[in-house]
What we know:
Rossmann fold, 7 strands, binds zinc ion, 11 helices, alpha/beta, 257 residues, two-stranded antiparallel sheet
Amino acid sequence: MNIEDRGDVSPQISGCGTPESAWRDCETLRQLPEFTLPRTDLAIVLAPHPDDETLGLGGTIASLLDRGSTVLVLTASDGEASHPHSVTTSPEQLRVRRQEELRRAIDTLSDGRPGQALNVKLHLPDGGLAGVERELGEHLYRFLDPGVLCFSTWAQDGHPDHEAVGRAAHVACARSGARLIEYPVWTWHWAVPNEETVPWWRAQKVNLSPRTISTKWSAIKHHESQINPLSERPGDEAVVPPFDLLHFERSYEVLFV
Ligand SMILES: [Zn+2]
């Protein structure tokens, strides 16, 4: 995620968005078929910012690790632009802080599970991933082959960085023969139940065990700089406030397969 896009960059992502109660009542969502995670030696999870991997896919990552897969989280940017108007925390401080939060979150997702979790940071510009889409695709391509399962933010997730990552993943996966699966993050904020632009026809859900839900929640809490205000000062507001966080407390995750 990243707050600058709430108003300035992405008009879709402003205000309180669609409440989780509306999604809870959504028949389409309730009736989605269950996705059975394929056995794979290597899964790549492409995340635009540190926190997207946990919010959108933390339960799936833990489930893959339960099955003994290696999961490589490829973090496109360091998330340094999450609070562009902060007077208390500089982009450089955010970069350091968010890298540490990411390390803790990934450690939590993998703790006690047989699979191995790895992280590679690409240090591409937060807020500017569309400008380096080709470079991003080249980085991703190096890790792909036809046996790899690649997860990326949905190419129409409503956030410029998330969409750039999704487009780069489409190109790299088509070129390599890797299987691409997309995960929505901001979609739950701007879309409404039965939204026509959401590809419900290829949406499936990964049901999470109580242990996995608890692991995911513990991992989310490590992304402190995003779910809590940095301070009481203007510009330091939480990027993922409680009403958005509710979308990620579900007992399932949705994938576009
Ligand atoms: Zn993000």
